[in-house]
Amino acid sequence: MTSARHSALLVNPVTRSNPRRTEPLPAKYAQEKSDHPAPSAASECTPARILEVGFGFWGSKVLLTAVELGVFTTLGGRSMSAGDLGNALGLHPRGRYDFLDCLLSMGFLQRTGTGPDGRYSNTAQTARFLDRSRPDYVGGILEMLNARLFGYWNDLGAALKTGQPQNEVKHSQTPLFDTLYANPERLEQFMSAMRGISADNFAALADEFDFSGFNSLCDVGGATGLLSTIVAERHPHMICQSFDLPQVEPIARRWIERSAAAARVAPVSGDFLKDPLPRADVITMGMILHDWNLDKKKHLVRLAYEALPSGGAFIAIENLIDDARRENTFGMLMSLNMLIEFGDAFDFTGADFWDWCQEAGFRRYEVLHLAGACSAAIAYK
Amino acid sequence: MTSARHSALLVNPVTRSNPRRTEPLPAKYAQEKSDHPAPSAASECTPARILEVGFGFWGSKVLLTAVELGVFTTLGGRSMSAGDLGNALGLHPRGRYDFLDCLLSMGFLQRTGTGPDGRYSNTAQTARFLDRSRPDYVGGILEMLNARLFGYWNDLGAALKTGQPQNEVKHSQTPLFDTLYANPERLEQFMSAMRGISADNFAALADEFDFSGFNSLCDVGGATGLLSTIVAERHPHMICQSFDLPQVEPIARRWIERSAAAARVAPVSGDFLKDPLPRADVITMGMILHDWNLDKKKHLVRLAYEALPSGGAFIAIENLIDDARRENTFGMLMSLNMLIEFGDAFDFTGADFWDWCQEAGFRRYEVLHLAGACSAAIAYK
Q: Considering only CB atoms, which chain B residues are within 8 Å of A94?
């Protein structure tokens, strides 16, 4: 039992038998890196990781709530006392220190001093990525997680038993995308959230895919035109079209105008469930295929095939699940998220993608890892 | 941007440009161990950890749901196909593989084969700690997290703004403990959950605190009598009383009867908000003080002082927050949980405890680390 007793649970132990004093041990929110899923030796059989993951939603919710309340945006480049920051955010005194010191111990705030003399400030990461006024803001997706998905995920059990979505649909009968596209403000929020988590992946694709043999690209479901502008900026010979619904065009136009390559990026309106795709040497779909069921996925693959010349490339950017379904936890969690959002939509492996592509007539296939859990699955006509 | 692009987000990358094949890289749910809160060098400024924690509730909810549905209990010592296991659990086909393969990739299941030929089984940890029929079951606390706290924590923002609890009270006006104590079945569930997460801490106290100078112990809020039986079993000279409300006595009696030291452990009924405590050389309170506001905490400290002889020890077992409030994330999260459960109740540092103890007349103080985030704060009269 010794190893169980001394293992850390989201925490460093208060220094043993050392009254009123704590050693400045390194913080360990992420727990020791365990070599699961390799079966542990008997001496390592403890419930520590089970409890760490089971309680994991607490820390997650603290961060999401901090983004919702604007902690990082309010701090900006300043340092503030718990009192001033709490007043600015409308926080009741009871939870101020617990909330801010949780964020501190998880590595999302810095602090000099303690108690009423303590002054809190952003870390390098939160200053850059969680201040709404900064261009690299990724909080849009966290706002969506907090406002919608945390609550809907509480019905994961029901989703697993019924195969039915557990989001707004449950109450309104209106599918997510219909609701989104009917409300310009929510649509722009959603697109901003997607932008924040896609930028690194699209930049990796622009840097690492060989565009030299191609002249034109059509990004299907292009939203704000992010992928098109990134590719056009880095490859001056490329002409790009960002294809999406007519409601999206004014949003895309505003974003594209800000790009140095705006002259080579055009928003194009259409509905990929009804219309053929614009012809292009490269067809990209960034986090599009996973939103649909098997029939619609295959339909989209066929549309891409039809729009490409011989030798053209079809690129799906997704949290592609590894073929053995053993490694890409985030891809499989995202697939459960598709269950909660849509029911029959799902994430998939590279092998699944290649099966559908072969059926449509594609000749060759490769996978290019992008950032984090995300890869480009690439099929050549 | 290179380090951002290649950092892992809950996942191992699908092997770069390697069609239809994935290297068996070690799984990394817990992400690389970062040295936060030390400010990172510019080259390490990525949003990876922000996104990992923000999305963290997904994996947490998958594990909690697996416990709720009885995945680990149904498997027991067997291996089962996704079809058989899904049928046994009443799972719709849509989510079966995503759900089970998520658990696999997070290290909570094992699998031989893939797809319809795959057979799932427990890991050493889930077989021992998450099968309801096993004595080391810790799933009680996870069942409570899933059934109650996941939903209530969705109102953390409201709790922080109002300082008010966000649990059953919000709807019924009846405080948690009143509801619990009015329902014998729920009371037993709650006590079983607490038992599961307390056993390691109580065993550590029994092993590491020097009981040689003491003959009697009273565990205040003793619930099932776990601490008393563990101390009595390991220290044959100790006589223990487990003090709790009259409703608890039949539950405690049943548990105590199973102990080899049952003859030296007695359940004693009383209400620590109204009655004095039984006299004893050692007074213990395991996860009791944190349930109350400052006035009631100080009242409990005074009661302990009054019940002890000179030289007697008052031991509070808690997720004691480090005095600098920088390290014990779990202790601070637990304090936010007390906000959600009770409003004005809170977790505390060793320094806070010692302040209250000095006010009551205690002379000396020490901290003994137990297991994980948990410590014993010990004051001597």
A: 163, 339, 343-344, 346
